[in-house]
Amino acid sequence: MPPTTVSRIYSQLRSEGLLTCVWGSKTLVVPIRIDNRLRVRAIVALPASLGSFCSVREYRNFFLKMREALWKFGFTTRLVFYGSNDAQSPSFAGLLLNYKPDIVIWFEPIPKLKGTIARLLDRGILVLTLGDCPADRREHHYSIDRRPAVKDALFGWQRDGIRSVTVMQDTCCGSASTIALVEKCLRDAAIPHAFAKIESWRLEETLLPAQQITRGIIFPSSALAAALAARDPARFAKLSKRSRVLLMDGPIDVPGLYAVEPSSDVIQVDLQSIAKRIVSDLIQSSSRRAEPATFQAKWVPRAINHLATPHSIQPSCNAQAHRLGGS
């Protein structure tokens, strides 16, 4: 090749960083350096209840969708787990502050966490909350409205011959607003109903032989249903077959055992849409708007649930993690 062509090629390779020339010595071939510098738009902390993360599939999937959507647009995330009482202590607020977050996205915070959230706000951290649609919609930046889905479920139950409903309660699981929502929907549908405390309620009372399902059971908290299923999964599966069971927070997994949702009705939301909306608001800096965004939930009957699931039971998240090499 002509020397002028070689010189031009060498000059181009040097400009691209593929070659380096040392005067009076030799030409060295160097590897291409990949730019690994991470350009972070903001640090986002995601507090998560460990119990709900393990047992409630929709709760767990929210954080997976949220982290994926945030990372795609340059946000780095920190998933911070807490126990039932940990998040209320001042030390948990200090733990979140140690990660130096710019934003905290809190999924379904309980009212007792207002002190922790207030401390974060005092430090200039943007705290976005996603909760069930309360009477005062300004309480959360984003809300999930389950009322139409519950009404659809009760209408479907009546059509299928359900004559009475039992609403399960527990002091540790579920919120007063959710129970009030369920009670109002039951009254509007004129369905006879009763409330039962999980501490005194026995599964034996509900396992009487019946040729036709005429009773429904509503769990305002899916975590409560998971705790009951973990106590006796086989009997809980029979309960789901002999009664219509509605899980307000979506399908459940029993840690170490199997999922039982194919024989239960569930209330679900489009988590992908929620994650995209939150990230879009963060990018546009419009998260501090006057009116919160509300997402509509939908009722998924157990017949559809069963058709969507080829097997009667599915391994829980712990079993899947074990197969994938997780702890």
CATH class of the largest domain: Alpha Beta
Largest sheet: 6 strands, parallel
Query: What is the global morphology?
Result: elongated
- Tally of helical runs: 12
Explain what the structure shows.
A hairpin with a 5-residue loop joins strand 1 and strand 2. A 6-stranded parallel β-sheet has the order 4-3-5-6-7-14, with helices on both faces. The N and C termini lie far apart (60 Å). Helix 6 packs across helix 7. It is an alpha/beta fold and 327 residues long. It folds into 2 domains: 133 residues, Rossmann fold (3-Layer(aba) Sandwich); 146 residues, Rossmann fold, CATH 3.40.50. The longest helix is centred in the first third of the chain and has 16 residues. The C terminus is likely disordered.
Highlighted features:
327 residues, alpha/beta, Rossmann fold, 2 domains, 6-stranded parallel β-sheet, 6-stranded mixed β-sheet, disordered C terminus
Question: How would you concisely characterize the structure shown here?
Answer:
This protein is an alpha/beta fold and 327 residues long. Helices cover 39% and strands 22% of the residues. The N and C termini lie far apart (60 Å).
Topology:
Layout: H1 3-15, E1 19-21, E2 27-29, E3 42-49, H2 50-55, H3 57-72, E4 75-82, H4 90-98, E5 103-107, H5 114-122, E6 126-132, E7 142-145, H6 147-159, E8 164-169, H7 176-188, E9 193-197, E10 215-219, H8 222-231, H9 233-242, E11 244-247, E12 258-259, E13 265-268, H10 271-284, E14 293-296, E15 298-300, H11 302-308, E16 314-315, H12 317-323
Parallel strand pairs: 3-4, 3-5, 5-6, 6-7, 7-14, 8-9, 8-10, 10-11, 11-13
Antiparallel strand pairs: 1-2, 12-16, 13-15
